[in-house]
């Protein structure tokens, strides 16, 4: 398992060692001692799994209280995955990292607490799984505007079409208006 730094040091790309032959493949997707050394020492308490079709954008989500660190990966299809730093006292506040995650490249992304997270489905459909360091807390759930010009996220929109969003994400806050972390 290889841990790769991104432009934001706390956000890590994780590339598994994949062993395969004509029967299929095997890979470890999580090893606690390596993860703690490179990323985090908090336990995971919740796993989530979603399926979305092409053009769906989920995010950018975060919890202002009971923040969740997320270890994310794609088990079918491909997404463009984004983490945005919302820690006001950070040198990288308001900056983002974007990574292609797919069932082909088998990469994972570690998105620590204090970041908004979202993904856009570029394949026909995608199944997305992630481990969380805290439980979902709907009363503290927030959404950051996916296309905030201040963030200038370079989403790889299929055919340049606007993504399909939930009502919550359509009404998301801009970075200037958003609740952020001290």
TrEMBL record:
Q: Where is the active site?
A: 61 (proton acceptor), 130 (proton donor)
Task: Show which residues form the site (Participates in a stacking interaction with the thymidine ring of dTDP-4-oxo-6-deoxyglucose).
Answer: 136
Give the Gene Ontology MF terms in alphabetical order. dTDP-4-dehydrorhamnose 3,5-epimerase activity
This protein's record includes keyword Isomerase: yes
Q: Which Pfam families match?
A: dTDP_sugar_isom
For this UniProt record, the keywords arranged alphabetically read as follows:
Isomerase
Q: What is its EC number?
A: 5.1.3.13
Q: Which residues form a coiled coil?
A: none
What GO cellular component entries does it have? cytosol
Any GO BP annotation: dTDP-rhamnose biosynthetic process
- Leading EC class: isomerase
What is the role of the protein in this entry?
A: Catalyzes the epimerization of the C3' and C5'positions of dTDP-6-deoxy-D-xylo-4-hexulose, forming dTDP-6-deoxy-L-lyxo-4-hexulose.
Question: What's the subunit arrangement here?
Answer: Homodimer.
What name does the UniProt record give this protein?
dTDP-4-dehydrorhamnose 3,5-epimerase
Q: Which organism is it from?
A: Proteobacteria bacterium 228
Name the gene that codes for it.
rfbC
């Amino acid at each position: 398992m290889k841990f790769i730094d991104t432009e934001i040091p706390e956000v890590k790309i994780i590339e598994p060692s994949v062993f395969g032959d004509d029967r299929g493949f095997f890979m470890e997707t999580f090893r606690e001692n390596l993860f703690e050394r490179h990323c985090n020492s908090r336990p995971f308490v919740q796993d989530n799994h979603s399926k979305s079709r092409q053009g769906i954008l989920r995010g950018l989500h975060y919890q202002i209280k009971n923040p969740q660190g997320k270890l994310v990966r794609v088990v079918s299809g491909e997404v463009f995955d984004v983490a945005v730093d919302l820690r006001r006292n950070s040198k990288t506040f308001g900056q983002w990292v974007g990574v292609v995650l797919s069932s082909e490249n088998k990469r994972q992304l570690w998105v620590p607490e204090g970041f908004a997270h979202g993904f856009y489905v570029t394949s026909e459909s995608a199944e997305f799984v992630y481990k969380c360091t805290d439980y979902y807390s709907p009363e503290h759930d927030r959404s950051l505007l996916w296309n905030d010009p201040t963030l200038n996220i370079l989403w790889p929109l299929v055919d340049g079409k606007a993504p399909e969003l939930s009502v919550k994400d359509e009404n998301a806050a801009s970075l200037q208006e958003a609740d952020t972390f001290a």
